[in-house]
Fold:
Amino acid sequence: MNPKKVFSILQKISPRLAARVAFNFVSKPKNRKIRSFEKSILEIASESILRFKKFNIKTFKWGNGNKRALLIHGWGGRASNFGAIIPELTTNGYEVISFDGPCHGASTKKKTSFFEMADLVKLFLQKHNYDLIITHSMGTVLAFTAMDSLKYKVNQMIILTSPSRFMEFIRLAVVQFGLTARTTKLLITKVRKTTTEYDPLTLKASTVIKGLEMKDVTFIHDKNDKVIPIEKAKSVSTFIKNSRFIEIEGTGHFKMLWSKKVTEIIKNQILSYD
Structure:
């Protein structure tokens, strides 16, 4: 049955029950089909397990360069999403580190939250200094949130799409399930209980990036992105001094991760910064 029809019935019976079901959905991200190029990159990775709260987190390392890069996937993503980008980084002297977030990829499948993932990113930032951070989608807000908490400094960031507010994450569920205003309010209450540090209603990129030191920042966004409208990322970029915004087309939200066009842009950005 169509999810909207299911939630339409649930909300008539009990908005509270509907909010609980919606919360369970957003707490267990759907993992997308792994592509052949992703399998290939995993085969040459050095893998390990990091114990984080109730999860076994699968971590990966490629290359042995004298520069270090951290790759942060989006909600419903996995480290191997960057499989087309990683060889370009290792070829240009980077040791590349990434991970499958809680309930993502090959990590433990249990309910998680956006803020729990941000706490995991903080662990990686505390462990190493990174010359380069590359993020995709909600991974961008995860990175900004963690970096803000630590007052973390980074030389270069490459941002492959970015929401402007945390509430955009909630709105995706609202649209997908056709949630009413009452059910949405109950869902937000549940999400708020997953953090003591941030308020989901007011958390936005423009706030958390104010105190960050980022020397070189590049945004790449498809103008026809149907998941995160390009205007959202453009809004974020205006709050970062001297950031550049590269508008592309023909890749959408996910396909950009294995687009030759995007890989070439990333190559040019890291070479120009060096």
Summary: The first strand starts at residue 46 and ends at 52. Strands lie at 46-52, 55-62, 67-72, 94-99, 132-136, 153-160, 213-222, 244-248. The mean pLDDT is 91. The longest helix spans residues 114-127.
